[in-house]
């Protein structure tokens, strides 16, 4: 938010784009529909007026004019909020997600107590080894296919076409293997495609004792510079109760930053969202409290506390683990 106007800033765009223009490009036909998605409080509409006026400098009247550039359309579909999937060019879930984000910004402006804490455990995610290796494999695989395409274009451009083209002659079989071995041996995780540069990702497990091995296996390494003298990330949070150990932390500059999981902590991974969404239907969608499942907004419920309780009771059913 800048000068009372909401903007969208992406690396794929050369400059900031008014957020209302983006909402209209994703299928919102009029401004009233955007205001209704955000909320019925008249203060939301008052805060949104400068953004609506900024959109007037970029006139768009329908979807066809907003989608002239296929590249911009693909950026909105694949890059903007990539965690919200777009199925059959239906941007409705993504528009709802953006509207919820706009509402959170306005709530923070109207009420400072509504702002989230950066150190709240619910706002953090753990990058597991499987996710990091999958990103590394994707980057190495795309690099290998790019090299193969360049080599194939050079061979096919030659005038001598009597020789039969053999795909195996230009296939580099060690690209993925060497890339994996280099990362695991050095610990330097470099994925240029996603602009990820980390060091010390892999470490040798010290089996001097059971406690030391267990502590190293449950260690949580934050993405925060140890040299910065900031007390916020180092302090204990009430939300860490039962998830992170309050005692096991190293001494020195890493004190409070490097944490360890508690013994009873269970790290959950991605689950199928369809059973959870169908399970939340009996809780009377159409109420006042919004409920979200995974990466999308599933509806509104009058009794939001009943959704997790009912999920736990029915968690013993097939295909739905109890959490």
Automatic annotation (TrEMBL):
Entry keyword set: DNA-directed RNA polymerase, Nucleotidyltransferase, Transcription, Transferase
GO cellular component terms attached to this protein's record: DNA-directed RNA polymerase complex
Sample GO molecular function, one term: DNA binding
Region: Disordered, residue numbers: 288-323
Domain RNA polymerase Rpb2: residue ranges: 13-127, 203-267
InterPro entries: DNA-dir_RNA_pol_su2, RNA_pol_Rpb2_2, RNA_pol_Rpb2_3
Catalysed transformations (reactions): RNA(n) + a ribonucleoside 5'-triphosphate = RNA(n+1) + diphosphate
GO BP annotations, alphabetical order: DNA-templated transcription
EC number assigned by the record: 2.7.7.6
Keyword Metal-binding annotated: no
PANTHER family per the UniProt record, alphabetical: DNA-DIRECTED RNA POLYMERASE I SUBUNIT 2 (PTHR20856)
Protein family membership: Belongs to the RNA polymerase beta chain family.
Protein name from the UniProt record: DNA-directed RNA polymerase
Natural source organism: Trifolium pratense
């Amino acid at each position: 938010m800048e000068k009372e106007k909401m903007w969208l800033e992406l690396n794929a765009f050369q400059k900031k784009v008014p957020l209302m223009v983006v909402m209209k490009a994703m299928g919102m036909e009029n401004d009233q529909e955007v205001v209704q998605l955000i909320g019925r409080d008249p203060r939301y509409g008052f805060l949104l007026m400068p953004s609506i006026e900024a959109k007037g400098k970029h006139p768009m009247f329908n979807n066809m004019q907003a989608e002239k550039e296929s590249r911009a359309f693909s950026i909105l579909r694949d890059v903007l909020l990539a965690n919200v999937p777009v199925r059959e060019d239906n941007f409705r879930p993504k528009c709802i997600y953006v509207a919820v984000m706009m509402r959170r910004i306005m709530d923070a402006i109207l009420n400072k107590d509504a702002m989230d804490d950066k150190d709240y455990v619910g706002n953090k995610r753990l990058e597991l080894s499987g996710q990091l290796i999958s990103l590394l494999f994707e980057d190495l695989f795309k690099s290998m296919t790019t090299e193969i395409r360049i080599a194939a274009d050079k061979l096919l451009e030659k005038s001598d076409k009597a020789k039969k083209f053999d795909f195996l002659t230009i296939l580099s079989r060690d690209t993925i293997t060497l890339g994996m071995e280099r990362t695991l041996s050095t610990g330097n995780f470099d994925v240029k495609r996603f602009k990820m540069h980390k060091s010390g990702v892999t470490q040798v497990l010290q089996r001097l004792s059971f406690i030391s091995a267990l502590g190293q296996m449950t260690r949580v390494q934050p993405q925060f510079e140890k040299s910065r003298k900031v007390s916020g990330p180092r302090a204990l949070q009430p939300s860490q109760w039962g998830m992170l150990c309050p005692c096991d932390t190293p001494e020195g500059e890493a004190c409070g930053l490097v944490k360890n999981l508690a013994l009873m902590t269970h790290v959950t991974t991605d689950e199928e969202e369809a059973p959870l969404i169908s399970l939340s239907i009996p809780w009377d969608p159409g109420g006042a409290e919004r409920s979200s499942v995974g990466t999308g907004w599933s509806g509104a419920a009058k009794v939001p506390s009943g959704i997790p309780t009912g999920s736990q009771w029915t968690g013993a059913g097939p295909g739905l683990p109890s959490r």
